[in-house]
From TrEMBL:
Residues annotated as signal peptide: 1-21
Keyword terms, alphabetized: Signal
Superkingdom field: Bacteria
Organism lineage string: Bacteria, Bacillati, Actinomycetota, Actinomycetes, Pseudonocardiales
Protein name: Secreted protein
């Protein structure tokens, strides 16, 4: 396997400072010129969690899980914007089967300079996790899929009170990674 640094040395890629390229900096030198941009690590969403809507049962998991499945997808390769989309499903393990499930809006993490598109990224674009919540604490996990863009997860499942649709949710932190950009 060839490292990104070795590829950069062979094909002459430039490393641009973290995710903010000066207008016109990527792709200088003619049609098809590639440039690498470092996308810094980010918390998604920045200020809270994605909270999926309640879709079944009452709003209280009541110590019965929930069983949680979550996934994150990096979208936008081939366009000028990279975004993260989170899916979460949390279902009570018995009783009335309280259920929260949904897909987040896209969270923007990078915009290429005008006339440029993201050709590739240095990490995998999909991540998923499954677990059973067993307490009222915030649950933290490292990324689960080898080489994915997600370095860690933070979840609220059950709480001391009603939570489905109001407090049950997911957040993630990305790794810093490299995006290759070129003229669209």
């Amino acid at each position: 396997m060839i490292s990104i640094g070795a590829v950069a040395a062979v094909v002459g890629l430039a490393v641009v400072p973290p995710a903010v390229a000066a207008p016109g900096s990527a792709g200088q030198g003619g049609v098809g010129t590639l440039a690498s941009v470092v996308i810094p690590a980010k918390r998604i969403p920045v200020d809270n969690r994605y909270i999926p809507p309640r879709v079944g049962g009452d709003a209280e998991f009541d110590g019965n899980g929930p069983d949680v499945f979550a996934s994150a997808t990096l979208v936008g390769v081939g366009t000028n914007r990279l975004r993260v989309r989170i899916f979460m499903d949390a279902i009570e393990t018995k009783s009335d089967f309280t259920h929260a499930r949904g897909t987040s809006p896209d969270f923007l993490i990078y915009v290429a300079p005008p006339g440029q598109c993201v050709r590739s990224v240095s990490r995998g674009g999909y991540e998923e996790i499954r677990y059973r919540d067993t307490d009222h604490a915030v649950d933290a996990f490292g990324g689960q899929v080898t080489d994915s863009f997600v370095s860690g997860w933070s979840f609220v499942g059950d709480t001391d009170g009603s939570e489905a649709g109001t407090r049950t949710g997911a957040a993630l932190t990305t790794f810093s990674f490299v995006a290759t950009v070129q003229p669209c």
